[in-house]
Design brief:
The complex is a heterodimer of chains A (about 180) and B (about 160).
Chain A (H helix, E strand, L loop, with lengths): L1 H24 L18 E3 L7 E3 L8 E6 L5 H15 L4 E6 L3 H11 L5 E5 L3 H5 L7 E5 L5 E6 L4 H16 L1
Chain B lengths: L1 H17 L17 H10 L18 H15 L4 H12 L14 H51 L2
The chains are: A alpha/beta (about 180), B mainly alpha (about 160).
Chain lengths: ~180, ~160
């Protein structure tokens, strides 16, 4: 009888602690994307370095690729940029850049200054494609598989840990 | 004194000019100058969350993305989409988080019913405790009273000469 009396408040306490533990350790800025497991929204946009040419999602069918949303005005993009340059040099997975709500001149100047890791960058001048991808903060990075399905979304700058523990293993699995 | 008031007023107007404000006509959302579409958009936008400044509605937020999303909502509304269709469009891109009113589905059952379940659980616990206490009082008291009565009687016997 005494054990029951003790175990009820103790049980409630443990449940409460578990809820708070999980709830408070989450970052409210990271809103899970509903796009994971769904086809990447289609786009056809002008290339940053060749404005008369376009790149479309359909052109990338059959490849595993990363879509990195960046902009010259984005401060945190500078944090992840060296990592992207390194990744591009390794040649493991092609990185495509979505220059989000940026002046193409500023974008080109920024890449000239910091190095260009992108196979191709495309220009989303008014942010419409960004909305289709549920972009709400730059940088964001999407991993898209051969069939054009979004497999992973990194909100905020890429980190060496996220790359090593999540993205690259997933890339290898998807490339098989 | 007057100079101070003037300075304070200047600071106030300066602050108002510095905040980028929505072109809401004087008189608020229901001002006569507002078209039915504007009223509808205003209502719809107050049910949607701005993803950048997460505790503001799309209607209240001055964030760049909120501007874009308002423009998007307006375009969809002008294209004849219903409120539900517009919400579905945004949920498909940003998830249920854009809705200030979370939808009813298995993952949100706890959110919707949790407080009532807790209330019912607390009420039940309270009722059990009260009943147990009443039963304890009801059963213990007569025994005690009887014992005390007997003791008093015994004592009385003892003091008899």
């Amino acid at each position: 009888m005494k054990a029951v009396r003790w175990s009820i408040p103790l049980g409630i306490f443990v449940v409460l602690v578990a809820f708070l533990w999980v709830g408070l350790s989450r970052d409210p800025r990271e809103v899970p994307s509903p796009l994971i497991g769904k086809p990447a929204p289609a786009f056809r946009l002008a290339k940053l370095h060749a404005p008369s040419e376009t790149l479309a999602t359909a052109d990338l069918k059959g490849t595993v690729w990363l879509l990195n949303v960046w902009a010259s005005w984005c401060v945190s993009c500078r944090v992840e940029h060296p990592l992207l340059v390194q990744l591009a040099q390794s040649g493991i997975v092609p990185v495509y850049g979505l220059d989000y709500k940026d002046k193409p001149d500023d974008g080109r100047a920024w890449l000239a200054q910091h190095g260009n890791p992108y196979t191709t960058s495309i220009v989303d001048r008014d942010g419409r494609v960004g909305i289709d991808y549920g972009v709400y903060g730059v940088p964001e990075t999407f991993l898209i598989d051969k069939a054009g399905i979004v497999r992973y979304k990194q909100i905020g700058p890429l980190t060496p840990e996220a790359l090593k523990d999540k993205i690259l293993p997933l890339v290898r699995e998807l490339q098989r | 004194m007057i100079a101070q008031v003037v300075i304070a007023l200047l600071m106030l107007t300066g602050a108002a000019a510095a905040t980028k404000m929505d072109p809401v006509p004087p008189g608020g959302a229901n001002a006569p100058g507002m078209s039915a579409l504007d009223v509808r958009l205003k209502r719809l936008e107050s049910e949607l969350r701005c993803l950048v400044c997460q505790n503001q509605t799309l209607a209240d937020s001055n964030a760049d993305l909120a501007d874009d999303l308002r423009r998007e909502v307006r375009t969809l509304a002008l294209a004849g989409k219903s409120d539900d269709e517009i919400k579905t469009y945004l949920v498909a891109r940003y998830g249920d988080f854009v809705l200030y009113n979370p939808p009813m589905k298995p993952v949100t059952w706890m959110l919707w019913f949790g407080p009532f379940a807790l209330l019912a659980g607390g009420g039940a616990a309270w009722w059990v405790v009260l009943r147990r206490r009443a039963r304890a009082a009801g059963s213990a008291a007569p025994d005690e009273a009887q014992a005390r009565g007997r003791k008093l009687l015994d004592d009385e016997d003892d003091t008899k000469p």
